[in-house]
Design goal:
two-stranded parallel ribbon; mainly alpha; 4 helices; Rossmann fold
């Protein structure tokens, strides 16, 4: 969701990449709650951090504690940022329960990304 949100709010001002420490698939709940904002992430694929080892990034943002603990060190002057959000994929329950958590986490990430982008523009 973070990748799709950042692409949406920042446009082409950033090259955005996203990866997980234990990639699986893009969750249908994520696709649904992003679609509610008019953002299509159905074409995204789940990638692993190993796909990006050796690449330089200006910023690396981890969005869950597990990712923060397992994220590799990237070369160069990478600004490493950690935002601790709940993992919506870990939530059990019926569809409405899962969608509610995905929406909440989506909105929390969106708020942080808007501030992040604004802060970079102000610098």
């Amino acid at each position: 969701m973070a990748e799709g949100l950042l692409r949406h709010i920042a446009g082409d001002r950033f090259e955005v990449a996203s990866a997980g420490v234990s990639p699986t698939t893009v969750r249908p709940e994520a696709v649904e709650v992003m679609r509610e904002l008019g953002i299509d992430i159905s074409h995204q694929r789940s990638k692993g951090v190993d796909d990006f080892v050796g690449r330089e990034f200006d910023h690396v943002i981890t969005v869950c504690d597990n990712a923060n603990e397992q994220c590799p060190v990237f070369p160069g002057k990478t600004n490493r940022i950690h935002w601790s959000f709940d993992d919506p994929a870990a939530v059990e329950g019926d569809e409405l329960t899962r969608l509610t958590v995905f929406r909440r986490v989506r909105d929390e990430i969106l708020e942080r990304l808007r501030s992040f982008v604004q802060d970079l523009q102000d610098d």
